[in-house]
Amino acid sequence: MEIYSGKVRNVHDLGNNYLLMEATDKVSSFDRHIGVIPGKGRLLNLMSARMFELTRHIIKNHMVSYNENVMLVEKCTPFKIEVVIRSYMTGSTSTSLWTHYKNGSRNYCGIELAEGYLKNQKLTETIITPTTKGETDVPISIENIVSEGYMTQEEVDFVFSKAMELFRYGEKIATQMGMILVDTKFEFGRNKNNEIILIDEVMTCDSSRYWGLNSYMDHFLNNVEPEKIDKDCVRDWVRENVQDPYKDTIPDIPDNIIRKVQNAYTQFYEGLMNVKPPRSNIVVIFSGSPKDETHVNKLISNCESQGLQCVSYVASAHKKPRKVLELIETYDTNLNYDKVVYVTVAGRSNALSGVVASNSTRPVIACPPFADKDDMMVNINSTLQCPSYVPVMTILEPINVALSIKRIFGG
To answer: Which CATH number does 77-215 carry?
Structure first.
């Protein structure tokens, strides 16, 4: 049963908590359907599936399987917010950064913008500029997302952190393809297990802007539009030929523009198929009990302050040794990661540190929790008394853990 016919996709409810998403050849922009590019739906679906596969280590997504222009996905409750991330001052639609900036606005989604930017110039820092999701997308600040009830602060913090991590990873993929990831949008939702996961599509040239890497600087310095590897050439054509693209009738897209988009999508898809997953570094934190959450959060906060990617698990070596071993194998053998450091949070009879160090060739740092100095003396003993050939380093302060790992990673 079809439950939704969108600007780009049709969605069918299959029951049993599954949806079938059908990517069409339709092109959307200016909050409306503006034309058809033959063959686009298939390429869009395949490139989105590839990106979902490449980014599963960052966050779980809704894709179950795919074929040609259809994707079987897990049904979710979406947040009514699009998380838009931008690295360049560009765009032509009503929600674009350049549109607002050239009209005099210096505050966008609650973010203060410096004077003096030129069109297509790289921003001094990458920014998140969310919009509401509906018939018309409306820019919104982080504060208003929370105050208007779209998301809680905790949800915003998690989603925006993951979105930025996805964007940084996407930049590495784009570089391998000889491209610049200029901006993109992400959508998130909660599945039946109440997990926040990535949905819709991810970093395709339908939901993102991509420019040619090697030609960008020459074009920018000579005030020439970048080499565009996305659907932006359709937007440009509409802007040149329609007075008000949000209201006026849009004529049929000419064949030369259709071919240009087809070539861009084909170039992107073929480049993506040859991408080797960019390898990154990660800190994996194991804690022996949920009661250690406060200490784990201190470690995560300090690691993130040093630009370190972190994940954490509650996995007791006494109660769930199989889970500990499975997680070690997962991270030791994951080709997405170049360097892995394990941090163990356990005290008193600390078996966790020894089990991890004995079953991995990666560095292990123990950071036992303690309430005061007396508690520290109780908790630290078993951590310091690991046997020979069980190389566990012990560091008591979370910030020193983070600084040590940064040096291990070569930062």
So the answer is: 3.30.470.20
